Amino acid sequence: MLRRYILLNTNKFVNCRHVSQSMLQSTVDEKSGIATVTMNKPPVNSLNLEFLDEINTQLNKLQKDKIRGMILTSGLQKVFCAGLDITEFYNPNPDRLAKFWTVLQDTWLSLYMASFPTVAVINGHSPAGGCLFAMSCDYRVMVGPKYTIGLNETKLGIVAPKWFQDTMVAVIGQRKAEVSLTTGKMYTTDEALQVGLIDESLPDADSALKKGTQFLNNFQRISPWAFKMTKDISRQPTVQWLIDNKQKDLDFVLKFMQSPDVQKSLGLYLQSLKK
Ligand SMILES: CCCCC/C=C\C/C=C\CC/C=C/CC(=O)SCCNC(=O)CCNC(=O)[C@H](O)C(C)(C)COP(=O)(O)OP(=O)(O)OC[C@H]1O[C@@H](n2cnc3c(N)ncnc32)[C@H](O)[C@@H]1OP(=O)(O)O
Predict the structure, then answer these.
(1) pTM score
(2) What residue ranges line ligand 1, CB within 6 angstroms?
């Protein structure tokens, strides 16, 4: 059941409905219909099976609730999202890995094709799957200058799946994405702005949230139907491959992730992170 709360959010009191509270906090401003979804899974918002499932469930719920827009952000100090939880890949249980990857596919489809406008307020580092989530929103506002964002998979000795790559191509174009992906480039906020990976850079989280809200306010006079149809037409070429190849993509990941060479690279990378 929905309850009314006064919520302290970025030093401001706002009237909102409190929708859920766990690893994910979701609040909806009653006046604007804008939801703020805050990832809060310390230490780094890594995306494991349970967290992804919660995010996907929440996205579907917001869609049913017919919200007018969503800000996706982080409740952690310096990390937006560290990407997929690498421990899901290391010495994996094949059944769990299959569930994990399927939920990831579904969550990406829900976010990328959300019927409402979405903004990522990137208030911390955003590597790999974190960058994928940010790129899947309709607009990106990043807090600068000290955080980084990018698809760094090659640096882990793994390969960004086709749909990760296609999402980047859709944002920054083929040539820049190719260089970015092959080098596993992590961009500083300024570099990300220059290459078009983010839309705006702000010095602090409060002003970034304000900018995000301003962007969403653009849609107050636009019919939700016209917005959704336009977004569908624009994004359909990027999602179609995964829609047509979900099983093939999953089979590939199961095989790829269980190969000794990939396991060795992942083990070394995990060790380096622990250090
Ligand atoms: C031929 C055709 C091929 C087609 C290919 C098809 C399929 C390929 C198959 C699969 C592709 C798989 C794609 C994966 C995408 C990903 O998202 S992989 C994840 C990549 N993420 C990273 O590399 C981020 C690593 N983390 C960091 O850089 C930093 O942690 C940070 C985010 C910058 C934060 O730094 P900070 O100093 O604040 O924190 P710590 O580094 O001290 O970390 C704290 C704690 O958290 C653990 N940790 C960090 N990141 C992760 C993670 N992603 N997963 C799990 N755990 C993580 C870290 O180890 C620390 O742990 P502790 O020491 O035990 O406290």
Answers:
(1) 0.94
(2) 43-44, 46, 78-79, 82-87, 125, 127-129, 152-153, 156, 158-159, 161, 252-253, 256-257, 273-274
